[in-house]
């Protein structure tokens, strides 16, 4: 698979175990790779320097609330058409509200169900 066919998924997550688990799940989909940013500042540098195809953002980060980060990333260069999902262990109704208020397209609940996550990933990335 060429670099052109690759989908880059940016996961903003400060917990290395959670980052590794997400990487393992997402990379089960051929043509996907995960870029991990461990803080809001690191995520802003990533989106300023390269295009990503999907943003996954943890709610609790060391330097910014995850639900407030999306607007900052859009200003830093994350394209308006890139889907963004909040990833959280909050109750579903809380996660849905936080995602909506933060401008996210949706959310994934922790702990992640591998099959459901892959189906959702396929939906967000589409067939291109």
TrEMBL record:
Stored CDD domains: REC
4-aspartylphosphate found at: 58
Annotated InterPro entries: Bact_response_regulator, CheY-like_superfamily, Sig_transdc_resp-reg_receiver
Domain Response regulatory: 8-125
Key words of the record: Phosphoprotein
Identification of the protein by name: Response regulator
Species of origin: Pelomonas lactea
UniProt superkingdom: Bacteria
């Amino acid at each position: 698979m060429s670099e052109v066919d690759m989908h880059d998924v940016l996961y903003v997550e400060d917990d290395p175990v959670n980052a590794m688990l997400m990487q393992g799940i997402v990379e089960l989909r051929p043509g996907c790779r995960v870029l991990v940013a461990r803080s809001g500042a690191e995520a802003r540098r990533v989106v300023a320097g390269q295009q990503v195809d999907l943003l996954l953002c943890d709610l609790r980060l060391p330097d910014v609330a995850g639900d407030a980060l999306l607007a900052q990333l859009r200003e830093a260069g994350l394209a308006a058409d890139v889907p963004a999902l909040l990833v959280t262990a909050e109750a579903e109704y809380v996660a849905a509200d936080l995602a909506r208020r933060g401008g996210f397209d949706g959310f994934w609940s922790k702990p992640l169900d591998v099959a459901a996550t892959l189906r959702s990933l396929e939906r967000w990335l589409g067939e291109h």
